[in-house]
Amino acid sequence: MIKRIQEIAQEAEQKIAEAKDNEELSKLQILYLAKKSELMSFMAKMKDMNQEERASFGEVMNSVKNKIQTKIDEKRKVLKDLAMEHRLKKEAMDITLPGENYERGAKHLFQKVVDEVSDIFIGMGYQIEEGPEVELDHFNFELLNVPKDHPARDMQDSFYIDETHLMRSQTSPVQARVMLSKNGVGPIKIISPGKTFRRDEDATHSHQFGQIEGLVVDENVRMSDLLGTLELFVKKMFGEKRKIRMRPSYFPFTEPSVEVDISCFECGGKGCSLCKHSGWIEILGAGMVHPNVLKMCGFDTKKYQGFAFGVGIERVAMLRYGIDDIRRFYTNDMRFNKQFHRE
Fold first, then answer.
1. Number of folded domains in the chain?
2. Strands, sheet with 244-251, edge to edge from the N-terminal-most edge strand
3. Containing domain of residue 113, as a range?
């Protein structure tokens, strides 16, 4: 019996050494150390032995069991190390190669100005509203007091898709849509940033450009409210030393209408080439909302008044950051964008 136990031990040691994976090792562990294995079946014969034989036989059995278990554990460690070595070779990388430099991206100057202007007006209690870029003639012109035969349409030579649809020439249709949604009940205090489209292109104009328009409708709204709003906006956007002036103008959707200038930040109002030696730079158009516009959008003009203004996004950027050509915004030149990656 002792001889057979030794044979089993040698056989087990050889098969464990030849095992190729953990699954094979688990099968060998069951074969040699499970309760129903041949080796463990010898334990049942101990009850027929005397005390001295039992002690000697138990010592041999424990030695063989521990040796087989030790060999299995050692083989498992060897297989684990081999698996790790194989994985490291498979996933090896050359750490001597130069690393990749991921540069921090820059927000486009157009969006940067939109965010800056929006922050200023949000701070004054305005909400941001948006509308479709493909607009109905009814919203783009007619609800803004520009009927089909109005000569002011020539000033906004537009891209028509059919007789009733066009690429919006201003963001004013958003104002009309918001006023209609209110069913004649104020107050309204919004800005509407977005893209607009007109058939025009030179160093200071583009067939596509950005515009931010503002609208306030409420009881007892006055021209002085418009003046104070624009003065605060100009100081926040261009510096506390900036002054504004209003000049009479004409827009079909406002009455009275004004052009708004700011004092030149290059010469401080003394006169230079930037301001054409006038000391002032034109920045935006504004005025009190025309009564016809209020009526068409459902508001009682005896109760409600309003003011509106519109500023070109690229115009603000060109003045604030010294851009010499509006077409630079749309040339997809990364060098232009990277100039403004820092605050």
1. 2
2. 127-128, 188-197, 208-218, 305-312, 280-289, 254-263, 244-251
3. 109-338
User: Is 279 found in the same domain as 143?
Assistant: yes
pLDDT tens, residue order, the chain (343 aa): 777 777 777 887 888 888 888 888 888 888 877 877 777 777 777 777 777 777 777 777 778 888 888 888 888 888 888 888 888 888 877 778 777 777 777 778 888 889 999 999 999 999 999 999 999 989 988 898 888 777 666 656 678 888 888 889 889 999 999 999 999 998 999 999 999 887 765 545 567 788 999 999 999 999 999 999 999 999 998 888 888 899 999 988 999 999 999 888 777 778 887 678 888 888 899 999 999 999 999 999 999 999 999 998 888 888 887 777 777 777 777 777 777 765 4
**Residue 176 near residue 143 (C-beta atoms within 8 A):** yes
Amino acid at 51: Q
The number of residues making up the chain comes to 343
Contact yes or no for 146/153 (Cβ under 8 A): yes
152 inside domain: yes
58 within a domain of the structure (yes/no): yes
- Establish if 262 belongs to a structural domain: yes
Question: Is there a single domain that holds both residue 84 and residue 117?
Answer: no
Are 39 and 129 in the same domain? Answer: no
**Spatial distance between the Cα atoms of 181 and 272, rounded to a whole number of angstroms:** 47
Q: Residue 29: phi, psi to the nearest 5?
A: -65, -40
